[in-house]
Every structure is written in C-alpha cells, then in structure tokens.
Design a protein that fits this description.
mainly alpha, 261 residues, 71% helix, Multidrug efflux transporter AcrB transmembrane fold
Length: 261
C-alpha cells in the first residue's frame, strides 16, 4: 500500500509527527508531486497493488471487499472516502453489462424474428429459421462448460452475434426451398434444395470460422475466447441447419397442405 502517511514515515524514521506544523513542513519538503495530493490539498489517494490479474472471480471478490471496507469505515468529519481503480471499474462495468445483456439479446432476437417473418410472410417460417441458431447457442454454452472454457459475462453477449451471423444459413435454406417447391413435389424440392445450398453454407461457414480462429493470434485472452466461441457456435449452427431445417420444412409443408406424414 502506498499513501501519504507512508511517505511521511519514510523520511521521519518511521513515525508520523504529532505536530501539524511538522507534518506540513515535511509535506512541503517532499512536494505534492508523486504523493497523490492535488495542489489545493483537498484530495489525496491511497494506492494498493494487487495480483488478481484478469481473473473475473478474484476481481469481483476484491472489488466487493474493498468497497465494503470503505463504506464501513468512519472517516473524520469533512472527509469523504471512495474507491476506484481497475478492479472497481471492471466490476462496475460487469454489473452494467449484466443489467443490459438480457434486454440486448431480447431486442436482437425480436428484431431478427420480425425481419425473417416479414421476408417470408410467415410466422411459422420465421420461427423455423430461429431453430438452428437457438439450438446452436445452447450447444455452444453447454460445450463451453464441458470443455472447461470460462463462461464470462462478456461471452454471454455472443448470443446476439451468433444469432446475427448464423441466421443467414437458415434464411438461405428456406429461400431456396420456397423457390424449388413452386415447380417440384416435396421430395424433389427438398433434395434440390439440399444439393443447391449445402455447399455454399459449408463454404461460408468455413470462411467465417477461419476468420474467427484468426483471433487466436491476438495477445488478449478475451480475443481468444471470442474467436473460439464464435467458431464453435457457427459450426454448430451449420450442422443443425443442414440436419434439422429439411425435416422441419417437410413437416411444415405436409402439415400445411394436409398431406400424409
């Protein structure tokens, strides 16, 4: 811990003088620069070095204990104590993110749903296109826990990113199916749709996954987590799109036109 009192004791044989004038003399000789005191002598700060690094749990614990310590202190009249620093700011940002993320993800999901419903003029097809990204997101979060990847606050925001990037695959599939079903029976339409869009979907997914894996070359750990999570999520969305969307389209078409299942 570094504070003004430490600096005063250092030059006074480890003792803080009991005389106010002596303290002022020492401070004048030391100069306010580097002591954490402003030139009006109205503000001073105490610094403490920590070893929490970027561990989210340790940062949260340090911030809560430090804040509680200051709030429970009893400073003299006219003195106000507060906390700041990287751990405190990080914890404040985490609380704000925790508060905003559910709303952001909900708004993003509703926005995408409105767009696909308007595009296909069908509520059912709109929800159908959300199935791959919804399941892909669940698989991603489950796999992160299984693989031991940290599920941090900042990574929860990737739900909107996976939704925005991955929805394109299901849109391609449904659009091609609607084109094929106009001139072919259901079985032929499904086969032609799969042959027509599977290669582009796989190619675009590989390109996107390769791009996100490029983030592993970054020095920041957050970039590594972002790259791995997005690559895994988009891969899952691709697999689910190619497997589930044909079955869902078949079920939708047979149910709508009352054909035998």
């Amino acid at each position: 811990v570094v504070s003004v009192s430490q600096a005063v004791k250092k030059v006074n044989n480890g003792i803080i003088p009991g005389d106010q004038a002596e303290i002022e003399r020492i401070l004048t000789n030391l100069g306010v620069a580097g002591l954490g005191i402003n030139k009006w002598y109205s503000l001073a700060y105490i610094t403490a070095d920590t070893t929490v690094g970027d561990d989210e749990e340790q940062i949260t614990d340090l911030a809560s204990r430090t804040t509680a310590l200051v709030e429970n202190s009893d400073p003299p009249p006219g003195i106000k104590a507060d906390t700041t620093g990287v751990p405190i700011v990080v914890e404040d940002l985490r609380r704000l993110i925790d508060k905003d993320l559910p709303r952001v993800n909900l708004i993003g999901t509703i926005g995408v749903l409105v767009c696909v419903v308007a595009t296909f003029a069908s509520i059912v097809l709109g929800f159908l296109t959300l199935v791959p990204v919804g399941l892909g997101t669940l698989w991603t979060i489950g796999s992160m826990g299984y693989l031991g990847w940290p599920i941090t606050t900042r990574l929860v925001g990737l739900i909107s990113m996976i939704l925005g990037v991955g929805i394109d695959q299901a849109i391609q599939y449904v659009t091609r199916f609607k084109f094929e079903i106009k001139k072919r029976n259901l079985e032929e339409a499904l086969v032609n749709t799969f042959h027509g869009v599977s290669k582009p979907i796989v190619t675009t997914t590989i390109a996107a996954v390769t791009g996100f894996l490029g983030l592993l070359a970054a020095e920041m750990e957050m970039m590594h987590d972002l790259g791995k999570t997005m690559a895994l999520g988009l891969s899952y969305v691709m697999v689910i799109t190619l497997v589930s969307v044909p079955a869902l389209l078949s079920l939708y078409h047979k149910t709508r036109y009352k054909t035998p299942l």
